[in-house]
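Narrative progress, year one. The postdoctoral researcher (J.K.) led the effort to move from monomer predictions toward full complexes, under supervision of the PI. The following entry was the first complex the group processed end to end, covering 183 residues in total.
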Amino acid sequence: MKKTAIIFVICALLLVSLAVWALTERMAGSTGRILEISVVLIIVGFAAFLGLSRMRSLRRKEAFEDEFSRQVMNRAAALSYYASLFLWLAVMYFSDRRALEPHSLIGTGITGMALIFVLSWLWVRMRGMKNE
Amino acid sequence: MSQLELAQKVGVRRETIVFLEKGRYNPSLRLAHNVARTFGLLIEEVFLFDD
């Protein structure tokens, strides 16, 4: 229950930060900004989905974490780590060719890693964990 | 027995039972043993192991 509460608190903090950022930057219309917001919303949506899924399991009085869910997480983490190496290589490649601020590069890399983890998780869930 | 009842008895999530039924998850020996014991059967009577 504590972990579920933490997930929702982090989601709320992220949404508030996004709202503050959107209001102070007055971001409107730019494709890059819309993309950034979309990625953050996907990540928050994923975290909220996990939190809701845990709450549903609690309500049903079933285990909210078991060997399958842990294996999916581990497999997704391993896959996303591998893919993230290539993401950082790409970020370094583009940083040499385009004038970007360091915090933008780091932000892009970290957000990309989170997005890759979400995609890896979905991929592992779709394929299942047969003969692993 | 419903998927949820079986999941509660063997201590896993319902979705794990769904993946087991679809053949998309190979359970641990402990889970396979618990599922078989719930039905009063042997592991090899519940799960089919093919190459």
